[in-house]
Design goal:
The complex is a heterodimer. Chain A is an alpha/beta fold. Chain A has helices at residues 46-53, 76-86, 102-112, 119-128, 144-156, 174-191, 202-205; strands at 2-13, 20-31, 35-39, 61-66, 69-70, 87-90, 162-166, 194-199, 210-215, 218-219. Chain A has one domain (2-219): 3-Layer(aba) Sandwich (Rossmann fold). Chain A has a six-stranded mixed beta sheet with strand order 6-7-8-3-9-10, sandwiched between helices. The chains are: A alpha/beta, B alpha+beta.
Chain lengths: 220, 785
């Protein structure tokens, strides 16, 4: 089943002489359960594509259909709620809330949704990611790899329809990077989690089912 | 606890310093508003209490009322109190309800106080119309005509009712007030609240903006994982509410303490006048103030909150700001060294942040310039107007040894007496060059185009003269001119004070006799001022030779000199005075000039020149007056001719000085509060700004910039904002100072502006040092981290 359809999206920044076309007429589809890697050099527009797909940045032109619905026809609040309920996002620099501990960071999207927290699920995910012994720690008490696992847990706790990972290993050493990639693969295989991952590393990209190459804002 | 509340409390705990600064800002602004309100209501209450005590708490007085008519009005529901005064008995007695009178034959004076003083006119009209109806039925027309209505104007003025009187309206006698300022105080309070609210909002807006900017990334993360704008707004408002409640409570407590201290200071200033202000918490104003503060906090927080909740998620997560590119390079960027270039670029590209600092500096500077100028003018005016520094004046002949009399008095009573002897002579003085006059209309022009003016020659005893020389910075033998004169403004019906001569002229003074024109047709001398004088004879051009010193300082002990005559004064020592007097007397006798000669005039003050005047300042004027009166009664040969008791001037002038001291105190307190709030806000902003830019400083450092280079960048930034603020505040101050000068011109006109340049420069210097100090201190903290 097709979860995501991106149609001729274009993103332009600035005006006149300072105009930059970050994404230039990009189209692709994502089926349920797919693990896609978008690869390209720095400045190729891959992060911009991810932000557009996540509903964080409106394209200058083009459409993004999520389960057949045009995302950018929704109002801001509905888009935010969609993100809260259906889209999990993992960033290169983790972006955890520094004043909340691991467990609180993980359950944050659920609390924002005013839903009851399933503690069993939290336990399950933290065990899956091997951070269950760190649940009461603050982010600054964790290593980079551990922080990224917390970010993954936060993204997975909502059972997202799609998980978007923006250079998830960009800030990690090779061992931690390998661990994260294996976890993502496991989530994809065992839980049929649909994943779009941004990377500039071909070796990491090869771990995905499909690779989309981007250069100068266009699909190669 | 829901997530929004949890995150808010976490943020408060984590950012203690920033939260503290914001709470301090709210507290200080609250103190500013509350203290002003409390002081106004306390002072107003104190004034009305004082007047009610001093001038009795009645509004209308009905004189010569018969008892029968009194009985018709006494039960009026609007009456709170009635005092009566029987004929031939000065005692006022308060009647108790039901206001029965025992003696039904006498006529009485009735003093009525109504329940609501603001409704005096309506209530008085009711009473008056009953009395008027009763008058129509009276047997004796004379008795009816004797009934008079008077109003306690002094008391009513405090409540905004002035010129209260009775007028005929539709054949009925009605009480009217000329202008009703009932709500003047209320309007003043609202105006103050509006001005302070604007300051409050600017300062608080900025404090919230900093708080929000520091959490920008966090809000962006929340948004990216599904936190709606509404949820983010809720967190921000919750933080605002928590800080607001703490700030308002603290501010309220501190306001009460500050108000107590200020009222104590005021009471000390007013110790001798009988005023005693006590703290009055008017519930109406307190509630309004609290509501206004809450609204201010809301207004100040709404924009930063909306900015935070609607900000770009991506920019927030990347923690970068939108920097506007500027194509054009400014002149400053071209001429300044690299540190200055970076400073100017920063300011030009991120204007909003620096705008707030500039605005705060402008508020502090403009407030100080305007208020200090106003205080200077007020003090100067008070110095020249309505100040009386002696208690009594004696007129004595040369044979009277007044010094011994005063010594005797001192030893007998233990009182302390200060005295000053002076003589005066009113002469016509030719002044050259004629250009030296500021206003031609103040001078008399003669047919040779020269100009002259009446001047009072005042001779002082040696000790007073020496003190005066020191005061005006002159040397023994100098001719000192008191360069102000009082003139009646016929249009406005008030006296105004004018400076007479311009500074910088080498004046030559000659004593002259004015010759009047003889009209051949009427065979009399012209009495029309414009036709009267064109000629003069020089009596003496040498006596007033010497170094001339123009001053606007009055003689201590004789400050009422400028109210006596509409002429400037020449102050000399007694020897010189006597010499001038002798020269003039010789001229008069040689030329057979009679005292009331119509053809010419030599002197315009016709006092007996054998007498001199002695100003006396003592501790107990009543005792002194009695002592002198006894001497006069017992020994006429001592020729002490007159004592004028000047105590009634003392009270009125004291009120004016008190008023100025109160205004000065309140204005100084407000200025101090504004400056403190401004400085705290500037500390907050600069501190936050430097912290935000720590990455920039690290990068600069890594490229080879030393601590000194970075300090210079901040110094250039501070100087840029400071100079900009000075220019703006000077421009803003000009119209306000113009208004002050125009207002003061109703009382006195000066030939130069009285702006306290030195004080202002010192203030600006201190402000600059503080701004620089804050910026540099902030970099130290960043470097330490």
């Amino acid at each position: 089943m097709e979860i995501l359809k991106v149609e001729h999206i274009k993103k332009v920044y600035g005006k006149g002489e300072a105009e930059v076309i970050a994404v230039n007429d990009v189209s692709f589809e994502v089926e349920e359960g797919e693990f896609i890697a978008i690869i390209g050099p720095s400045g190729s527009g891959k992060s911009t594509i991810l932000h557009i797909v996540a509903g964080l940045e409106k394209p200058t032109s083009g459409k993004v259909y999520f389960y057949g619905k045009d995302m950018y026809e929704m109002n801001k609040k509905d888009l935010t709620i969609l993100r809260r309920e259906k889209i999990g996002i993992i960033y290169q620099f983790y972006n955890l809330i520094p004043t909340l501990n691991v467990e609180e960071n993980i359950t944050l999207p659920i609390e924002l949704d005013k839903k009851k927290i399933d503690r069993k699920k939290v336990e399950e995910i933290t065990k899956f990611l091997n951070i269950d012994n760190r649940r009461k720690h603050l982010p600054n008490e964790l290593s980079g790899g551990q922080q990224q696992k917390v970010a993954i847990a936060r993204a997975l706790i909502i059972n997202p329809a799609i998980l978007l990972a923006d250079e998830p290993t960009g800030n990690l050493d090779s061992n931690s990077s390998e661990e994260i990639i294996q976890l993502l693969k496991k989530a994809n295989k065992e839980y049929k989690q649909t994943i779009i991952m941004i990377t500039h590393n071909l070796e990491i990209a090869k771990q995905a089912d499909r690779i989309i190459q981007i250069k100068d804002g266009k699909i190669m | 606890m829901n997530i929004e509340t949890k995150l808010t409390f976490n943020d408060i705990k984590k950012n203690k310093k920033r939260t503290l600064f914001t709470i301090i800002s709210i507290t200080l602004c609250t103190v500013l508003i509350f203290t002003t309100i409390i002081l106004i209501s306390s002072i107003r209450n104190g004034i009305t209490d004082n007047i009610e005590t001093g001038y009795n708490d009645y509004q209308i007085e009905i004189d010569n009322l018969d008892v029968a008519t009194f009985n018709k009005i006494k039960d009026n529901a609007n009456i709170d109190k009635i005092y009566i005064q029987y004929k031939d008995n000065e005692q006022l007695e308060q009647l108790e309800k039901p206001y029965e009178l025992t003696n039904s034959d006498s006529e009485i004076n009735v003093y009525i106080k109504f329940n609501d003083i603001k409704k005096t006119c309506q209530d008085s009209t009711e009473i008056i119309q009953i009395v008027e109806a009763a008058k129509a039925d009276m047997d004796s027309q004379e008795k009816a005509n004797n009934i008079e209505y008077k109003f306690n104007q002094k008391l009513l003025t405090v409540y905004g009712l002035i010129d209260v009187e009775t007028v005929e309206a539709n054949n009925n006698l009605t009480c009217v007030a000329r202008v009703n300022y009932s709500y003047v105080i209320d309007i003043l309070i609202i105006l103050i609240l509006v001005i302070f609210s604007v300051i409050f909002i600017i300062i608080l807006y900025n404090a919230f903006l900093i708080t929000v900017n520091e959490r920008k990334k966090e809000y962006a993360i929340l948004n990216s994982i599904g936190g709606t704008e509404g949820q983010i707004l809720k967190m921000l408002f919750l933080k605002g509410i928590i800080m607001g409640i703490i700030g308002i409570i603290l501010g309220g407590i501190i306001s009460i303490l500050c108000s107590n201290i200020i009222l104590d200071l005021l009471n000390k200033i007013l110790a001798e006048t009988g005023y005693n202000f006590r703290l009055v918490l008017d519930a109406k104003y307190i509630v309004i103030s609290v509501l206004i503060i809450i609204v201010n906090i809301f207004i100040a927080s709404i924009i930063p909150s909306l900015k935070a909740s609607t900000a770009s998620v991506i920019q927030g997560i990347r923690n970068n700001n939108e920097i506007k590119s500027k194509k054009r390079i400014s002149l400053l960027e071209r001429i300044l060294p690299i540190e200055g270039k970076i400073a100017v670029k920063n300011i030009r590209r991120v204007k909003s942040k620096y705008k707030i600092i500039t605005i705060l500096l402008v508020i502090c500077m403009t407030s100080y310039i305007v208020v200090s100028t106003y205080i200077t003018y007020e003090r100067k005016t008070a110095d020249l107007v309505d100040e009386y520094d002696s208690d009594a004046e004696l007129m004595v002949t040369p044979s009277v040894d007044y010094k011994s009399i005063l010594k005797d008095y001192e030893s007998k009573t233990g009182d302390n007496v200060e005295d000053l002897e002076y003589k005066e002579l009113g002469l016509f003085i030719l002044v050259e060059p004629a250009d030296a006059f500021i206003d031609e209309d103040n001078a008399t022009e003669y047919e040779d185009n020269k100009k002259g003016i009446r001047m009072v020659i005042t001779g002082l005893d040696d000790s007073t003269y020496k003190k005066y020389l020191e005061k005006v910075n002159a040397n023994y033998g100098d001719i000192i001119i008191y360069n102000n004169m009082r003139l009646l403004d016929l249009e406005e019906g008030t006296f105004k004070y004018h400076t007479v001569f311009k500074q910088g002229y080498n004046l030559k003074l000659s004593i002259i006799e004015e010759i009047y024109n003889f009209n051949e047709e009427t065979e009399s001398y012209e009495d029309d001022e414009e036709e009267t004088i064109t000629k003069y004879n020089v009596i003496d051009s040498k006596s007033l030779d010497g170094n001339i010193v123009l001053t606007d300082k009055l003689i201590d002990g004789y400050k009422d000199m400028r109210e006596k005559y509409m002429a400037p004064f020449i102050i000399v020592n007694m020897d010189k005075f006597n010499a001038i007097q002798k020269t003039v007397n010789t001229y008069i006798s040689q030329n057979n000039i009679l005292q009331n000669d119509e053809s010419s005039q030599v002197q315009f003050i016709m006092s007996d020149q054998d007498y001199s005047y002695v100003k006396v300042k003592c501790g107990n004027i009543i005792e002194f007056s009695n002592y002198i009166n006894e001497i006069i009664k017992n020994d006429r040969s001592k020729n002490i001719d007159r004592i004028s008791n000047a105590t009634y001037y003392t009270l009125e002038t004291q009120e004016k000085i008190i008023y100025i001291n109160i205004i000065e105190l309140i204005l100084k307190v407000i200025i101090i509060a504004i400056v403190i709030i401004g400085i705290i806000s500037i500390i907050n902003i600069l501190n936050a700004s430097v912290y935000e830019r720590k990455q920039e400083f690290i990068i600069l450092n890594s490229l080879g910039a030393t601590d000194g280079n970075i300090d210079k960048i901040l110094i250039y930034e501070s100087l840029y904002m400071f100079i900009k603020a000075v220019i703006i505040s000077i421009i803003l101050s000009i119209p306000m100072i113009y208004l002050i000068v125009k207002y003061m011109e109703n009382i006195i006109s000066f030939d130069h502006l009285l702006i306290p340049i030195e004080d202002i420069c010192i203030f600006l210097g201190i402000l600059l040092l503080i701004s620089l100090g804050i910026a540099l201190y902030s970099t130290r903290i960043v470097k330490d981290k």
